[in-house]
């Protein structure tokens, strides 16, 4: 399923991001990352094998500048909150976007001994997958 890549494209299309969003966990330096969270699950399945899934994700931003992290994740939150099925289209037909719910607004989770702040934004996406899709 190429959902994460589609979400990454949406985030990277936001004007004036301080850096590109990448897939994976936060690095040792400044980074803006999208990664999966535990708890994704199948919500429903019909007799044909088509399924509805809740997929959990988080955008993390690691930087020494708190105001930059906060402003960036608020911009990401506002963009994600307005997504429609026309904005998130699978390139390989592996899913159909239904909805996205922000789990909590951007928040600071920690500051390390080098002065890096970690801000996070959690959300879940509801998608439909189809048994006959490749």
Q: Could you give the count of β-strands?
A: 6
What is the fold named in CATH at topology level?
STM4215-like
Q: What count of helical segments does DSSP give?
A: 2
- The ordered string of helix (H) and strand (E) elements is HEEEEHEE
Segments where pLDDT lies below 50 for 5+ residues?
none
Number of domains: 1
Largest sheet: 6 strands, mixed
As a percent range, the share of helical residues equals 10-25%
Beta-strand content: 35-45%
- Provide the CATH top-level class: Alpha Beta
At CATH level 2, the architecture is 2-Layer Sandwich
Give the overall silhouette.
elongated
Report the span from N to C terminus. Answer: 10 Å
Based on secondary structure, the structural category is alpha+beta
Mean pLDDT: 96
User: What integer value in Å does the Rg equal?
Assistant: 16 Å
In brief:
The protein is 19% helix and 41% strand. The protein has helices at residues 3-12, 66-80; strands at 22-23, 31-36, 41-45, 51-63, 96-111, 117-129.
Explain this structure to me?
This is Minor capsid protein [Lactobacillus plantarum subsp. plantarum]. The protein contains two helices and six strands; from the N terminus they run αββββαββ. The protein has 134 residues and is an alpha+beta fold. Strand 3 (41-45) and strand 4 form a beta hairpin. The model has no long low-confidence stretch (mean pLDDT 96). It has one domain (3-129): STM4215-like (2-Layer Sandwich).
């Amino acid at each position: 399923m190429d959902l994460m890549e589609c979400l990454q494209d949406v985030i990277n299309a936001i004007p004036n991001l301080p850096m590109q969003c990448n897939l994976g966990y936060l690095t040792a330096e400044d980074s803006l990352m999208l990664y999966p969270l535990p708890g994704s699950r199948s919500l429903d399945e019909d007799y044909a094998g088509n399924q509805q899934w809740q997929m959990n994700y988080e955008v993390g931003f690691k930087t020494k500048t708190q105001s930059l992290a906060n402003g960036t994740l608020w911009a990401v939150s506002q963009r994600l909150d307005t997504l429609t099925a026309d904005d998130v289209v699978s390139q390989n037909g592996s899913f159909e976007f239904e909805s996205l719910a922000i789990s909590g607004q951007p928040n600071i989770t920690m500051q390390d001994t080098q002065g890096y702040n970690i801000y996070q934004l959690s959300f879940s996406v509801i998608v439909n997958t189809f048994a006959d899709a490749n």
